[in-house]
Structures are given as C-alpha cells and as structure tokens.
TrEMBL record:
This is LytTR family DNA-binding domain-containing protein. PANTHER family: TRANSCRIPTIONAL REGULATOR, TRANSCRIPTIONAL REGULATOR-RELATED. GO terms for molecular function: DNA binding; phosphorelay response regulator activity. Pfam families: LytTR (PF04397). InterPro entries: LytR-like (IPR046947), LytTR_DNA-bd_dom (IPR007492). Keywords: DNA-binding. Residues 75-169 form the HTH LytTR-type domain. PROSITE patterns: HTH_LYTTR (PS50930). The lineage of its organism: Bacteria, Bacillati, Mycoplasmatota, Mollicutes, Acholeplasmatales. It comes from Peloplasma aerotolerans. It comes from the Bacteria.
Length: 174
C-alpha cells in the first residue's frame, strides 16, 4: 500500500478530475493523515496510476515567471487561457485578472508553456488546451475553438495538424 498526503485546498482543485479518471480511495481520517490534510491510498496493483496523478497535482501547482511592462509576474499556468500577439505586444488572457502585456516574444512563451499542455494555433496565438470547451470544424480546413470564457479562436490551416497531434486526435495517414 502507498499513501500520498497533501494540502486539503490543493486537493480540492483536482478532486473531481481524480475521481472521474482514476476511481481512487481518498481519506481525511485523522488516524490515516494529519488534520487539514488529505490522503490518497493506492494498492500495489494500481501503482501504474501514480505518475499521471502526480502530474495532475504538479500541473495545478506549477507557476511561471513572465516579464511584463511593469516588472515580473508569477502566475499559475492553469490560470492562463491564451496568449495573443497583436503588433509588437503580447497579451496574456487569464481566468483571474485582466489581460497582461508580456514583454517576451511568442516563440519563447511557446517553449516555456509547451510542457504544460499549451499549443500554438496560429502565427499570433497560443492556447491552453485545458481551457478549450468545444472544437468545431470551420471552412477552409480550419478549426474553431470555443474557450471556457466564451472566446472563439481559429486554428489556422497550417497549424491544424500540429494542433491535432498535440491533442492526440490526429488521424493516422496510411
């Protein structure tokens, strides 16, 4: 048996995802874990489930440091919905604050955010894949994305294949 113990507030943010995907036994029993903590108990036959669980937990806590016009901003990657280049300015749209102007170029931001499930969808856009509500086909072999905040973005034709690969929905070519 393996126990994982972590902060109750952090746990609440990932609880539904863990319940739906992994059907795990979780406890707040004071005999099992300290007060204010939550425990996850896995049998040895389910140890293969541990890595994705830890990745989900780590993703919720991951922060990046980005340069803005007024200094440096530390932000949880899960708060970022998408980034948009408009002229020489990069706008970061988030779930928790108004848009921020970021001083780093889009290609650098793409490299920084790629490990955290972000994908380039056009010359001027990077999107957080976990913030997509719907994906619809559009005219001219493009895709229309509806994000959790109601924003619609278009995946340009030259980025559709890479975008589908990033999501794991690209059809195999014979």
């Amino acid at each position: 048996m393996l126990k994982i113990i972590w902060n109750k507030d952090d746990f609440e943010r990932v609880k539904s995802k863990l319940d739906q995907e992994y059907h795990l036994y979780m406890t707040q029993d004071p005999n099992e874990v300290p007060v204010g903590k939550v425990g996850l108990i896995l049998s040895e036959k389910n140890l293969h489930k541990l890595r994705p669980i830890l990745e989900i937990i780590a993703l919720e806590k991951t922060q990046v440091l980005l340069q803005t016009v007024s200094g440096w901003l530390q932000i949880h990657v899960q708060e970022i919905i998408y980034l948009e280049a408009f002229g020489d300015e990069i706008f970061m749209h988030t779930t928790t604050m108004s848009s921020q102007v970021i001083k780093q170029p889009l290609y650098q931001l793409e490299e920084i955010l790629k490990p955290y499930h972000f994908a380039r969808i056009g010359k001027s856009f990077i999107v957080n894949v976990s913030k997509i509500r719907y994906i619809r086909t559009a005219i001219n072999a493009k895709l229309d994305l509806e994000l959790i905040n109601g924003t619609h973005l278009e995946v340009s034709r030259s980025f559709v294949k890479d975008f589908k690969n990033a999501l794991g929905i690209q059809k195999r070519e014979d």
